[in-house]
Amino acid sequence: DLHINPKDEL
Amino acid sequence: MNVFRLTGDLSHLAAIIILLLKIWKSRSCAGISGKSQILFALVFTTRYLDLLTSFISLYNTSMKIIYVGCAYATVYLIYAKFRATYDGNHDTFRVEFLVVPVGGLAFLVNHDFSPLEILWTFSIYLESVAILPQLFMISKTGEAETITTHYLFCLGVYRALYLFNWIWRFYFEGFFDMIAIVAGVVQTILYCDFFYLYITKVLKGKKLSLPA
Fold it and tell me: What is the tens place of the pLDDT at every residue in B125-165?
């Protein structure tokens, strides 16, 4: 879904 | 990964390195807000706990380790090694007025009420205001060394580039994180006044001095 942040950013 | 996020990360890395080298080479942290650097160390500590739980890529892991390492090295140089040059009289922003509301907000507005997620949310909110002690200190001293303005410019540009990264990811990957976006917009807005001064003064070779 649009919302899940993969937390792949710094 | 997209060009905005990569240049954003490199701009952030440049800012961190510029500051560390400036303090190390000049053996002085005059004009630098130690409080902001403590807040940044706290931001990285609370955001990168996932270093212990998940591996995303070598780039991701190595950059996180560099950020955390440099943040603590900078705090160490300011409060230990070159403490004599720390300008405590002008670094007087009340950081508890930032940390407490941000901490409360992280409990109220988050994507998931789990410890890691609340700490991540806390770090996102805190990062958006962590530069305030530094900007406040410059307004009190009425000036900033040119190297410090380059540090601030790179730091401000990094999150502005992340805004474009989020537009890119929304359009191409259907991903967006409202918490990160709103905090990123607030963070970038806080630099606008400085961006104006940087572009109209520093880029024209003048010193950045505010009407004290």
Answer: 999 999 999 999 999 999 999 999 999 999 999 999 999 99
Are the Cβ atoms of B5 and A6 closer than 8 angstroms? no
What ipTM was predicted for this assembly? 0.90
The count of CB pairs under 8 A between chains A and B is 30
Strand partners, B144: B208
- What b/e sequence results for B52-65 when a residue is b if at least 16 CB atoms lie within 10 Å of its CB, and e otherwise? eeeeeeeebeebbe
Listed residue (B78, B80, B88, B83) closest to B23, CA to CA: B78
Chain A residues touching residue B60 (CB < 8 angstroms): 8, 10
Nearest-CA distance A6 → chain B (Å): 9
